[in-house]
Each structure stands twice: as C-alpha cells, then as structure tokens.
Amino acid sequence: MNIWWTVIRLAVRALLAYKVRSLLTMLGIIIGIGSVIVMISVGRGANASIQDQIHSLGSNMLMVFSGSTKSGGVRAGYGTKPTLDIGDADVIARDCPAVLEVSHVTVQSDQIVAGKKNWGAKVLGTTETYTAVRDWPLMAGEFLTHPQVRSAANVAVLGSSIYDNLFEPGEEAVGRTIRIKNVPFRVIGILSPKGRTPSGQDQDDAVFIPHTTMERKIAGHRLPGMVHFILVSAQTGELVDEAKREVEELLRQRHRIAPGSDDDFTVRTLDEYADMAGKTTDIMTYLLTAVAAISLLVGGIGIMNIMLVSVTERTREIGIRIAVGARESDVLIQFLIEAMVISIVGGILGTILGVAASKIIAQVAGWLTIVSIDSILLATIFSAIVGIFFGFYPARKAAGMDPILALRHE
Amino acid sequence: MDTPVIRFRNAWKTYPMAGETVEALKGVDVEIGAGEFVAIMGPSGSGKSTLMHVAGLLDTLTTGVYELEGEDVSAISKTRRADIRNRKIGFIFQSFNLLSRCSALENVELPMLYHRPPVPDWKEKAMEALRIVGMQSRSAHLPTQLSGGQQQRVAIARALVNQPALIMADEPTGNLDTHTGQEIMNVLQSLQKQGITIVLVTHDPEVGQKAHRRIWLRDGRIAQNEAN
Q1: Cβ–Cβ contact B96 with A under 8 A
Q2: pTM over 0.90, yes/no
Q3: Burial of B37 by CB count in 10 Å (0-12 exposed, 13-18 middle, 19+ buried)?
Q4: Which residue from B210, B108, B85, B101 is spatially nearest to B156, judged by alpha carbons?
Q5: Which of residues 254-283 of A touch B (CB under 8 A)?
Q6: Cα(A243)–Cα(A250) distance, rounded to whole angstroms?
Q7: Nearest-angstrom CA–CA distance, A327 and A337
C-alpha cells in the first residue's frame, strides 16, 4: 500500500461524498473534451476526404497552365493569356525522362443534342492519352485512338453525366450520333463516373473529342495550336517533383524566358493542391477546436468554483491535517489531486462521449470522421492541465490556512 | 537534570486585533521536563491557548525563545514545524476533530500519511495504537458511529501513533460526561506512565487536579506554579 494510492483514494472518496455536485462539475469538462474530440475528428475526416478527391484527379499528375498576363502591374489569373501550344506538350513527352504520359486540353461550352434531347456541357478537345493521365477507366466502348485524333474524326466519348442527361437509363449510347454545333459525332465510349473536383465541378459533365476535330470543326475562331492546359503524368510518385522541374526548365527554354524573369506558365502537382486544401481544412479545424476549447475553459472555471466551496466547507479537516503534521505542500497536493481527479475522470467520460458522437455523426450525416489516438491523448493531457491550472488557486488557499483558525471553524 | 521537553524563555506573543495590539503572552518563562504530566490552567483570555498553540508549533512567538527537547524552534520554517508536529507532538482536542468520512483506523493512519520517510508497517502501527486505547474492535467504524468517549479514544490513538515526545490535550474532557471524562484521564495517565510527556490545557480545577503539576496563567503571565 503506497501513500500516493491512499491520497488518490481519499480524493475519490471526497468527491463521491457529493456525487451530484462532482458530476455537475465534471459536466463542463465532459462537454469540453467531447466537443474538442468531435471537432478534431470531423476536421481530420474532412481533410482526408478532400485529399482523396484531389489524388483521384489523376495518377502522379501535374497540370501546366498558361501563365497570367501582366500589364502595368495588373495580373490576371491563370490561363488568361494563351501561352501553351501543342508543340509544348509534344516536347514535354519527348524530352522529359521523368514524364510518362502527356495530354493537352482545350475547353469550351456548347449545346449537345441527341435525338430530341439537348444538354449544355463542356466540350474538351484532347488526345488519346487523356484517360491514362487522368487514371480514368471507361464504362462502355473505348476512348479516342491515335488515328482518330490524327485524322480529326467525328467521334466523341461521353462523361457519365452527359449520358444520364441525353439518354434513358440502360439505353445503348455507343454507336449513336450526337450533335455539337450541328456537327454530327459518333459516340464511341462512355467514361465511368469520376465525381466532383474538390472545388465542386462535376467532372462527368463533359464530352471528349479529338483536339484536331475541335480546332477544325467546333472552335474555328480560336488561335490554332494553342491549348488551355497540359496534363502530365510522372513515371512514379517519387518522380513527380523531378518531372515538375524538367517541365519547368524545358518550357522556360522553349518560351525563351530570360533568367530572373517570371514564367509565363504555371506547373502544379496534386500534392500542391492537397497542401493548399489541407491548409484550408486545417484552419477550419483549428477554429472549431478553439471554440470547443473555450467550453473547456468554462469547465475549468466550474472546477475552480466548486473547489473553492469545498475548501471552505472542509476548513476544519484542513486544520486537522495541518495539526497532525501535513506540510503546506501535502495539503496543496491533496486538493490539486482532487481537482485533477474531477478533470481527468471528466476527460475520460468526455473522450467516450466524443468518440461516440463522432461515430454517430459518421453514421447519420455520412461524413468521414477520423478519431485518432493523438487527439484522445491530447484531450486527456489537456484535461489534466485544466485540473492543475484551475485547482491551483483553491489548493493554495487550503494550503495557506492558519491551523488555529481552521480548527476553530464550525 | 535531563533536557526539558518544553522550555520558554521570556516568551512574548502579540497580535493585532480590531486595530489594537493584544498581548497574549507577556514574558513567560516555563520548563516542562520529560515524562511530566502538567496542567496549564487559567481563565479564558489568560493566554493558555496561545501558550499551547506555540508549544504545539501551530503558532510562533513574537519574541523570546522556545526550545523543544533542547532544540531552539522559535524561528524555523513552516515545513520544519510541520515535520516536528508530525514526529514529536500529538494533539487531543475538546471536539475530537476526527475526519468524519474516514474510519477510526484511517483517522489513526493520518499522521503516518505525512511522516517522512514513510512508515513501513503503518497498518499494523495504527491497529496497535487503537489496541492501546481499547478501540481495536471499532477500527472500521466511522466517527458518527462512535460515542464521544470512543471518539476521544480514537483521537488519542491518532496522537500517539507516531510515538511523540509530547501530547498536547486541549480540554480533552470538555465534551464528555464525568464518568467518560474520568476514563479518558485514566488513558492519559497510563500514557504518562509509559514516559510520554502530557500537557493538559483546562480551566476545570477538578481535571487539573489529576495532573502532577499545575501552571496557572493570568493576563499572559505565570501566576502560580504548584506541584502535588
């Protein structure tokens, strides 16, 4: 039997003597810790699903955009000035060893007509390598082929949303004809659903045609040979950054950009997007956790309040302890332990509540929630700190008592 | 002659009260030898409580010297005083002052909780102390389940569990009937026979008569010192 065990047992007994009061005091900590755990798990879950979404955009993918125009210090956004052309894409494919596949895309919005139905959607003029770069399997038929692209064939591959909007469920679409700007296209394939981008765009609401056909028969007025963006896939995940460096170097040469001048293009990897999105969700998580932490603070003040009442009520007990030889530090530790028992037990109950609430949220709202060991550890340590911090003042008051006055106290 | 357990030399105690300075002790010189059974007597306000508090190291002198077993303890730290209280002094109070939520045994264990270094076989020591006062069969009882006399016996067991040199008893029979009070005095007398110094504080001449020596205080000074 060790002395510490006795001290803790006495603290627990002191708290059990006033069960309802102790429980109500704990409630602040329970709610505080519970909500911190829920907020962290929701935040982590949100972050993880966004990261998933971003990495589903393509395999080891890099995106190359036209750089922004810059005139008199006013800089417009990416892609506002066309600086990339098909030649850039071809050279990247040929000269960058870290690069596996290259595709390029020009986009415009058009009305798509199939029989009596029509639907406004994006039309993407691209290459036969597009699905490989995007890691995007087909649901039916096949994707564009090299001969079709070279010969500017009137063939189209539909995103699944387009299929849903232009055809009846189960209706055979491959082999049918759709019209874009009154030009007939034979449907040769349907892509499997890819979902939304992290920014909320429906990636399946698009029709894919050869870029050659796009340029000659649909776009007409656009600058020949220019593309909106180039998609590149690296050989492996490790080579993504290497590929980015190679592409940047190559394009600076091709675009004759002097050392020290700004690039007229931008290369982004998916990891960079993931980092940016991660920062956003992190800020949200911090914010929500900070709000939850405030309730912990309120809970701590509740502990301090009750401990002060308890110290006053037990003045005589304190006097007895001092008389039989308790040092100031002994009394201090006793009351600190009582405050810590309240806050740690509250912390444990709050953790259970928080984990349960996270699971319920995951079930009911269908959100991904991630309860991690470190958030539980953090909550427990935090509740102990709350106990020490808010228990200290009442404990100091107890330890500093004059034993003579304390023993006279009724 | 042996070193006295308590020796006060020109002990003064003043404290402020309601804007005025109260002089509770005004130059007290007193010695209490080892193994004595002494009663400190006097009306309320005579300074006997103050003298007991200082002697029990619950309070300090304003000026003068207090030696406990030959050691000058007039100006030692609060922590040192707590440790000396724990080892050398046992307290018995008029209102028993047991912890209401703790059993008789746990109340007796209390001083050992604060003993440094830890007492090895403290459970046994606490039971032994209860046996000395005849309370071993009530060790698991809470104070509310015990009579006044029984509670005071438990308090005596608590006072002697760390084998103190000195037991300070402040009106130990004040809340008890005559018969029970007599029993408690018998317990104290038997402890004195075993060599523990007993200092009894009382205003009751009949109780004081049981001691071997009476020190009368009046207005903070020693008025009379009479032995049996």
Answers
A1: no
A2: no
A3: buried
A4: B108
A5: none
A6: 10
A7: 15
